[in-house]
Structures are given as C-alpha cells and as structure tokens.
C-alpha cells in the first residue's frame, strides 16, 4: 500500500488526518462492517479530486497516509493496483462529480440506521430533539439496486441526495455529507442516535408521540445555533484518539 506524506502543513494533509480520525472513531462505535464501507473527502476546489479509505483495510488500522487520492473523472482509477473498493468508487465518484457542496461523504452501515433502513417505512419521525434535527432534512433512497458496484447505481444515489445533508438508503445503510469532516461525522453520530431512538420507541409497541410540523421545523432550525458544537465534538474525540490511538495521524 502506498503511503502519502502528511508532514506538510497543507489543507490535504489536515483533511487526511481528519478523515482518518472519522474512520477510527466510527470503528470504535462499531458502525463499520468488517473491511467494508467507505468515507471520502474532496481536496480540490471543484470537489472532483478526493480522498477515500483503502480497499479492505480494517478501520482500526487506517492512517492518514493510507488514504487514496483519486479523481472522480478518471475511470482508469479502477485499473490501478491500489484501486479503491468498487462500490466506494461507484458511490463516491458520482457524489463528488455531481454534488460539489458535499465536500465530505461518509457512507456506512451502522446498526440502528441499517435496522431502520430495513423497514418498509424507514422515515425518522420527530419524536425528540435529535430525531427532529433531521426533519425534512434527510433524503430517502427507496430504490436499492444491489451492492452499488456499478456506476449507474452511484449516479442514481447522487441524484436522490440532491441538496440534502444525509440520505437514508433503504435495504442498505446511510450516507452523511458536510463541508468538513467534523460536520459530516457529527451528523452521522446524531443520525445513528436518532435511528436508535426510533428503533427503541418502536420496540415498545406503543404509538409514537410525533411532534406537530411547526414544532418539528422549529426544533430542526434550532440545531443551526449549535453549529460550533459539531466542530467541538469532533475536536474532543480527536483528543481521545491523540491519547489512545495516535498513529491515526501518521
């Protein structure tokens, strides 16, 4: 595996460190699936050159220098000896070609989100302040087409996402987006918590106390005032990694 220089003080170097941290933290939370799933982050101004985790490397071992730098416009990427996972290329190349606002895309199959995605109705309903964060702010892809190793599946997913900040992928998993790794990872953290709340509430067999639309919208809007907390959350978790798994930055 080719290692890349992370000693220079560049935007790419910092993005490498942040994306590696997001991968390690997601592993700690048991959100990943074996050596599968994939995170990416754009490093070029147009968003088309991006970093993605290497194929079939366990998330507990991924370092900043291991991340692959690829070009969404270069299909020859998949002919290289260190090509990314086919489904990673299909999904993330389409996202970075078509959604320039999605600088970071975190695709994963966390337990509660995936359980919810397996329901006929996977909609996260506003039943508390965390579930309300995603009120009308979550795309729903209800047309699963397989493991997504084909380019057409990635293009379809990107079209479904549109301008949303996250997508619930029925029979599959979830993907969150952000201008930074911190924002996308915080969204993933809260999306999995929202899904857990939904699954636990459903498990009681009782009727859900769904917020009225105006209250749900007001609560979702209130999350904007906590934007700084998204960055603080990620920074705090990186401090934990700095103490316990410092090699993620290598």
Major beta sheet, strand line-up: 3-2-1-4-7-6-5
Distance between the termini: 14 Å
* Fraction of residues in helix: 40-55%
Name given to the CATH architecture: 3-Layer(aba) Sandwich
Strand content: 5-15%
Number of helices: 8
Largest sheet: 7 strands, mixed
Q: What is the N-to-C order of secondary-structure elements (H for helix, E for strand)?
A: HEEEHEHHEHEEHHH
In CATH, the topology is named L-fuculose-1-phosphate Aldolase
Question: Could you name the CATH class?
Answer: Alpha Beta
Structural class: alpha+beta
Overall mean pLDDT stands at 92
Give the quaternary arrangement of the chains: single chain
In one word, what is the shape? globular
Briefly summarize what is shown:
The protein is α+β, with helices and mostly antiparallel strands and 250 residues long.
